[in-house]
Amino acid sequence: MTDTVLEVTNLVKDYDAYRAVDHISFSIQRGQVMGLLGPNGAGKSTTIQMLVGVTLPTAGTIRYFGTDFAKHPQACLQRINYASAYNSLQERISVKENLLVYAGLYQAKKPRQKIAELLEYFQIAHMANRRYHDLSAGERTRVNLIKALLNDPELILMDEPTASLDPDIADKTLSLIERLRHDRQLSILFTSHNMAEVARICDEVIFLDHGKIVSRDTPENHTKRLREAVVTVRFSGPAAPVEAWLQTQNLAYKFTEPHLAAIETTNEKTAGIIAGLHQANIRMKDVEVQKPTLEDVFLHIARKDKGAA
Description:
Layout: E1 4-15, E2 18-29, E3 33-37, H1 44-51, E4 59-64, E5 67-68, H2 73-77, E6 80-84, H3 95-105, H4 111-121, H5 137-149, E7 155-159, H6 167-184, E8 187-191, H7 195-201, E9 204-209, E10 212-217, H8 219-224, E11 228-235, H9 240-248, E12 252-257, E13 260-266, H10 270-279, E14 284-290, H11 294-303
Parallel strand pairs: 3-8, 3-9, 6-7, 7-8
Antiparallel strand pairs: 1-2, 1-4, 4-5, 9-10, 11-13, 11-14, 12-13
């Protein structure tokens, strides 16, 4: 059994003279969560559409579990599924009726038993007979995830699964996704505009821009590429000694409050600055180090073509 569940090679999608996806290549391993990120128009949606067969590639290959998707689409689709916060099921029938329809389409084995088990797993068994129309956004998200699991997929493409959810329900949804990954060795391709979510659940992150992969790495390594950091020091006593020391170190700084200095520096120098202030007998009451986040990386990529780093 291959450990590679998805392999994309030199994938291209052209719309007349416009190239939406430009020779991208990547792979996902069994049990891996891969983030696919980028600003609007970067090619994410087009890539997902090609991966589920809604749109045909102009060039390149997609292989699921070593099988060519273009030659054997049905065999591949039986082993994957798709979940999105933007998908809506039939509004006027019940949750169970909706799931039975999809179980039939997916040719799920023992559909009623499977649906009952998944409703219990997602802690919404009591909603089985409620109309889908009457569910909250968080409840709909859970039902959509159950729908995506009816065929026991080995890979799920998740497009913003927590969009429009309040923080508490989004956190619970992410916890359920983490459980699914652990319990089933499930592989996930995950898109989101919430960088904190991406950093939490993704092993690797691919950034797309203008249809090309501009960066692929772990969330931690992505943030290390942006060297900027801010050390915020709250101190007691007069500001003059603090300012004098900062000037001797040629550091950029500003006093945002009379006893609060924000020092612009790099990741590598933060520890030295704190130690230097201590050696200079600056009485520090609180220190906060703000290092780049995945959101900073996203903004850097989104703004670079506009002349703003």
